[in-house]
Amino acid sequence: MYRSRSGTELDRYAFKFLSSISEDSVILHYDILGSEAHCIMLYEVGFLTLADLKKILQALDEVKINSRVLDTDDYEDIHESIEAFVIKDAGNDSGGKMHTARSRNDQVILDIRMKVRDDINDICNAIIDLINSLLEKANENKETVMPMYTHLQQAQIGTFSHFLLSYGDALFRDMDRLYVLYGRINKSPLGACAIGGSSISIDRMKTAVLLGFDGLIKNSVDATSSRDSFIEFASALSILMITLSRMAEDFIIWSTFEFGYIDVADKYSSTSSAMPQKKNPDVLELIRAKAALMTGNLVAMLSTVKSLPSGYNRDLQDLKPTLWKMSTTTLESLKIMNGLVKSLYIHREKMLEAARNSYAISFDIAEQLVVQMGIPFRSAHKVVGALVEKAVSKNNIAFTMLQKEDVEAVLNNIKSSLQAEELMQIIREMTPIRSLELRISSGSPNPKEQDTAISFSYRKLAGYREGVSKRKRCIAAAFDNLGKSTKNYLNAKTSS
Ligand code: ARG
User: FRET partner for 34 with CA separation of 20 to 30 A, picked from 42, 136, 354, 493?
Assistant: First the structure.
């Protein structure tokens, strides 16, 4: 349709190669809304007659009702296909005016902005749901004692809720990146035209408001050439998926028979064709794998735009399916993770047993030596280290099983002036629960700290929930208004 200069038809393979029609189905709906707003604006600035506008809106309405009226075989993208239909339906005298003061270059980025704007809201809502489930589970597990790990080796005593809250905090940041980005995405590029604006007195703010945008991407080169905000989106999603992959990995490890801390519900577990005993955490493994694909996609997007000259270049078309895929993958992963967290079974006794049999209490004992005996931490570290060595040499027995002679031997050996009885008293009192009560520093797994963190997070969550729903309401109100204007124009009486 656009081959005004060249008389020759495009080679069929080249045509297929160029086509973005399959991925454009995702933006069909936005493209129609954009055209409605654009034509209403063209009418209001006096560029279309009411009769033209009505015919165009009528044709667009037909596409809305049944998109199968579109010929998607002979046009290279959805913009061309819709315009061709409008011209066929409304006649060239009216329909041929729809593309006045517009180009596919500002049109496509308008559609992408509307789509990503919705995606951000949907993804934020899915994150909110997941954080909510984490907070609920954390609330039930404030006193679920378990060992914490560094280098995957037992480190300190902690609680299960502390881990859940740590995922929640990371997810808050993941959400905030998207939440802030929304402000950059929610600006209208429409009216930038091909690259340099138009000589027709279009009203860019009018279309922006009709489409629920919060302002303009002003510079016409910037509006049509830049994709930085979408790369930021892809990057925020990749980072979010990395958070999910950490959760996935922790859950995979803790659900092994050897750990046995948690059980993934049957409805989220896979079986084996050969081994009847198997219950595999495949969905978690796939989340892990998808986090890798996201990283790859992000790098692909960065590489695609690197060194592109200013102005629209067809390379940009290839960003679309990658973006769509990244949104879908993220949304699916968040939903799966939410269901999985909600239905997670926690083996509290198993966790407690692991904590009880653990030398992860060592740090707390050393700190009590500092607090109660007033010795330097470095000396306390030495005493407890020697104690661990002794317990390990006696077949990994618990500290509480050490005899007085053992403790005396340890102290003599390192020339410590501590009394065995004093040390044994500290050890006896240092149950896992006690160690948590003593851990009073801000942000520690102390049960009171957990309480504060949970109620703070719930309040924070309510703020984001309200913010996202306000944004959704703004978009819905704008589209509602656009729908009413469209209807009014369709029903308006033309003078002739
Ligand atoms: N299908 C194109 C895309 O997705 C639309 C813009 C085409 N513009 C152009 N000048 N060829 O990016």
Answer: 493
